[in-house]
Amino acid sequence: MTTAVAEQTRVLVERDGDVVNARQTGRELAASLGFRSTDLTLIATAISEVARNIVLYAGRGEIAVSAAHNGARRGIRIVAHDDGPGIPDVELAMRDGYSTGKSLGLGLSGARRLMDDFEIVSEVGVGTTITMSKWTR
Amino acid sequence: MPVPILKQGQMLIVSMQASMSDLDLVQLKDDLADRVGRFRSSGVVIDVSALDVMDSFATRTLRGIAHTTKLRGAETVIVGIQPEVAFAMVQLGLTLDDVGTALDLEEGLALATARKAEARL
Predict the structure, then answer these.
(1) Among A41, A110, A113, whose Cβ lies nearest the Cβ of B53?
(2) Number of folded domains in chain B?
(3) Number of domains forming the structure of chain A
(4) Following DSSP, what letter does each residue of B15-31 receive, concatenated?
(5) Which residues of chain A have a CB within 8 Å of the CB of B21?
(6) How far is it, in rounded angstroms, from Cα B116 to Cα A19?
(7) Which residue of chain B is at minimal alpha-carbon distance from A52?
(8) Model ipTM value
(9) Could you tell me the CATH number of the domain that includes residue B95?
(10) Which of A44, A87, B56, B82 gives a 20 to 30 Å CA spacing to B90?
(11) What CATH number is associated with residue A83?
């Protein structure tokens, strides 16, 4: 399911096929914002990682992509949100190679490396929100 | 949507689709392990040139496919990794370890054949 609100596009993520849908939606928006080809792949890959985390750990959530402005800079903002179990130790989860066993442990730390800005807010029993941006250069 | 596996002589050839989900990838792993035995194949060439994203899951699954088919007696070579995809993989810290790679299908078939011949010595 994809719904557009103003300049924001939201993608429901609950099955593994939705991971593909989410990254294609992000890639299309990034392309329309003028990102070059290499950046499109980096953005799509970062979305793929956070979307898969939702499916693996929260079971259900959503990814919202929108155009971002920061002074003269233009870019894309991706917000991945779920009401899942939350991450007890965010710092530990962000470490390379850290995994609870369902993955390689490169998802979150990898997504952070692929994007320019990356912020994660998580509370146990409440959920996780990842906000990440990339700017055109 | 299952991925078609083509048989050419002793080789199996797979062309990955851009819209492949995680489940399709896992299904491919099972199918290839089965076909390698059924057709007594000596090599598998997986063309990923249509993939615009190879994230940690896809990379881990491809590595798993290569190691599984190796245990079944066939060499797997990954061909057609796009330059942008290679760049993203490096930034993510993803590697294919000892899995063979080649630029295109033709070189991939040659590499799989050579690797198998080497293994027979």
Answers:
(1) A41
(2) 1
(3) 1
(4) E--TT--HHHHHHHHHH
(5) 16-17, 19-20
(6) 36
(7) B57
(8) 0.87
(9) 3.30.750.24
(10) A87
(11) 3.30.565.10
